[in-house]
Specification:
One of its GO terms (biological process) is L-histidine biosynthetic process. This protein has 287 residues and is an alpha/beta fold. It has helices spanning 13-22, 53-58, 69-75, 119-129, 162-166, 193-214, 227-233, 262-271; strands spanning 2-7, 35-38, 43-48, 64-68, 81-86, 92-99, 113-116, 134-137, 153-158, 169-179, 181-186, 215-223, 241-244, 250-258, 275-281. Bound molecules: adenosine-5'-triphosphate, 1-O-pyrophosphono-5-O-phosphono-alpha-D-ribofuranose and magnesium ion.
Length: 287
Amino acid sequence: MLRVAVPNKGALSEAAMEILKEAGYLQRRDRKELVLVDEENGVEFFYLRPKDVAIYVGQGIIDLGITGRDLFDDAQVTTGAEEVMGLGFGRATFRLAAPQGRFTSEQDLAGKRIATTYDGLLEGWFAQQQIPVEVVHLDGAVESAVRLGVADAIADVVETGNTLKAAGMETFGTPILESEAILISATGERSSVGDQNGADRLIRRLQGVLTARHYVMMEYDVRRTDLDAVTAVTPGLESPTISSLADENWVAVRSMVPAKKTNQLMDELYELGARAILVTSIKASRV
Ligand SMILES: Nc1ncnc2c1ncn2[C@@H]1O[C@H](COP(=O)(O)OP(=O)(O)OP(=O)(O)O)[C@@H](O)[C@H]1O
Ligand SMILES: O=P(O)(O)OC[C@H]1O[C@H](OP(=O)(O)OP(=O)(O)O)[C@H](O)[C@@H]1O
Ligand SMILES: [Mg+2]
């Protein structure tokens, strides 16, 4: 049976369970449940701390897992696990911060103390930058570290920036990592071929959910003579569907387009002669 790790709490937990539900998998109803067997799909879900997901997958104990890219980097599992795909939620940037006006670049931190809960990630990054710093490990609430005198700067996850602002701090220097929830996979020998099939199916299902979330179906009528111009604007994923109409000078076009660009594309198509432009959302997909 395929084994999949899901964050049991924290910023990624709800959205991770939601995407798996949307992909047709059973998810736990009770927050205290640690394991859930989805017999129908042949998957066993393990609810683990998001920080620990990389450890289990890296050792091949669990086949696939959902975690944050920053957490995966921090765990420093350099062999045994790899990122399969970004999942589009839990977006945040891992950044340096300090009281307003104190530093302008990471170079200013040579010889300084930096507090973080992500010491693996931070030490790796500063080593790469060849800037010698002292990393101070804390378990949370790192925004207080400078005021309380345990560090000169901090490195933490920034989403809205509200937490930093409330603490009188600002970000500075190069953003260290753009994070989001990711699917990771064990890269070692899998126990059985059945697992590999199940893993491939789960990956395809998640890709299908992401496509359904990020694309819409656009349909319109256009004169045959304008067809090349409009299909260049909406090329679709593979190629647009062209159907004939009763009036043989006109055709109907169907194409998937990024949801974010819906209005911009409708404007462009209209200007190129397309009419009766309709947009519908995609409930599910397999691409
Ligand atoms: N506003 C946010 N705050 C914290 N983490 C966030 C936020 N937005 C996205 N994330 C992502 O969520 C993951 C951290 O999850 P989580 O909050 O469970 O960890 P944690 O803060 O270490 O745990 P906890 O707060 O339960 O001790 C990281 O991948 C991080 O990038
Ligand atoms: O930019 P923002 O939207 O303000 O979000 C970022 C803050 O949220 C997280 O803290 P969390 O609430 O998880 O507390 P923790 O430090 O105890 O993990 C993170 O560590 C930042 O402090
Ligand atoms: Mg947290």
